[in-house]
From TrEMBL:
Keywords: Coiled coil, Signal
Pfam families linked to this entry: Peptidase_M23
Protein name: Peptidase
Gene3D superfamilies in UniProt: 6.10.250.3150, Glucose Permease (Domain IIA)
Superkingdom of the organism of origin: Bacteria
PANTHER family: L-ALA--D-GLU ENDOPEPTIDASE (PTHR21666:SF289), PEPTIDASE-RELATED (PTHR21666)
GO molecular function, one term: metalloendopeptidase activity
Keyword Transmembrane set for record: no
Coiled coil: 26-113, 161-230
Length: 403
């Protein structure tokens, strides 16, 4: 009878456990958002350096526009991320406020019950002392029941005091946590305002560069024609290399050459879909695979046989997977120095290099240096990267790991 009159201990401990579960879930979500924010921060730092290098040019360039577009995109991602963090904090603060309200009610109830117990004990002491109460029992069974009652009553009072102390401590912790959440929210809102101002500045620069580029439509069209010619020359080179290697492979099969032959180095390439290392340590995809609208010329569509990765000056270009160097050549025009690496049935192409660090027939591993990226007269440092399976062009971004 006694235990049912007062605050059930198991309900409180279940409540404390539920608080812990909520905190664990919130912590996971918070960590994930913080990781995303750090990734975006790193991207912003990289594109800022690339943008500053392209801005050295006295005139507006496509490289500047690409870097500005990437900066704007990343800044928007950052603002979206911050907004998610603010929403998470608002939800968390609401949960904490509900917890605090519930615990304040529990504390009032516990204090009330303890007061009732203390009052009962006081009245009992006025009427008779404990020994009299015990020894006034008419039977031994009654004596044992009274003794057990006194023990349970004393234990209940002690437990009630411990419960009050525990609730007070937990309540203080929750109040501290909500205060920390409020401070964190204020910091995020300040950061969000800073990102918004940066975004506005970038959009103004983007508008200026785009307007200037549009006035130079004739020059941009000439650049497009030159790029198309360079793509054709590179395509012919790749086709020749692949044709030669396929012929060698066919002859090797007839001669029953073992798979230990160099032509089979990196033959597990197909297993590395979405896992390949990036050919440069920093940078962003300035133009993706396939057909895309020109960034400055309205109604003009460009087609890319690979991906262009805009990066920093003197950036080291690395092999994405183990293989054998099949070609080191110079392609007149925009493509400059080109390195082609074979990985069994697959080939990777690295164009727009300033210089190469490998020789034909040399075996390379993932991340091995194969060249240095070329920087053009506009200050743009950009790598053209392609992936082929025999005679078929593939989308390189499907093969590169996410970052």
């Amino acid at each position: 009878m006694f235990r049912n009159r007062f605050f059930p201990f198991w309900i409180f401990f279940a409540f404390i456990f539920s608080i812990g579960s909520i905190e664990v879930t919130a912590q996971k979500s918070k960590q994930q958002l913080e990781q995303e924010r750090q990734v975006n921060k790193k991207k912003i730092e990289e594109t800022s350096r690339i943008l500053s290098e392209t801005m050295n040019s006295q005139k507006a360039t496509v490289g500047q526009l690409n870097a500005l577009n990437e900066q704007i995109k990343t800044r928007k991602d950052m603002m979206s991320n911050i907004n998610k963090e603010v929403v998470e904090l608002n939800v968390r603060m609401g949960e904490l406020e509900d917890i605090i309200e519930g615990m304040e009610g529990d504390l009032v109830q516990l204090k009330k019950e303890y007061g009732e117990m203390a009052h009962t004990a006081y009245k009992s002491q006025l009427s008779q002392n404990n020994l009299v109460f015990l020894f006034s029992a008419e039977t031994f069974h009654d004596f044992v029941l009274r003794l057990e009652y006194m023990r349970q009553y004393s234990k209940a009072r002690k437990n009630q005091m411990e419960m009050i102390s525990l609730v007070k401590k937990t309540l203080e912790d929750q109040r501290e946590e909500i205060e920390e959440a409020k401070q964190e929210k204020d910091q995020l809102l300040v950061a969000q305002m800073g990102e918004f101002q940066e975004l506005e500045n970038l959009q103004k620069k983007q508008k200026t560069v785009l307007a200037e580029l549009k006035t130079r439509g004739r020059k941009l069209n000439k650049e497009l024609k030159d790029r198309k010619k360079a793509d054709e020359k590179l395509g012919n080179l790749i086709a020749d290399v692949i044709r030669t290697e396929l012929a060698k492979k066919s002859s090797a099969k007839k001669a029953a050459v073992k798979k230990a032959d160099v032509a089979f180095v990196g033959a597990d390439f197909a297993n590395f879909r979405k896992k390949l290392e990036w050919p440069v340590a920093s940078g962003f995809v300035s133009q993706g695979f396939g057909k895309h609208p020109h960034p400055a010329l309205k109604g003009v569509v460009v087609e890319n046989p690979g991906v262009d990765i805009q990066t920093r000056k003197q950036e080291l270009v690395r092999a994405v997977h183990q293989g054998v160097v099949k070609t080191v050549a110079y392609v007149p025009g925009e493509m400059n120095t080109v390195v082609i690496v074979q990985h069994g049935d697959y080939f990777t192409v690295y164009a727009k290099l300033e210089s190469s660090k490998v020789k034909v027939g040399e075996a390379v591993n993932a991340k091995d240096p194969i060249g240095v990226v070329h920087t053009d007269s506009d200050g743009k440092s950009e790598l053209q990267f392609q992936v082929w399976k025999q005679k078929e062009k593939l989308n390189p971004q499907v093969w590169l790991r996410s970052r």
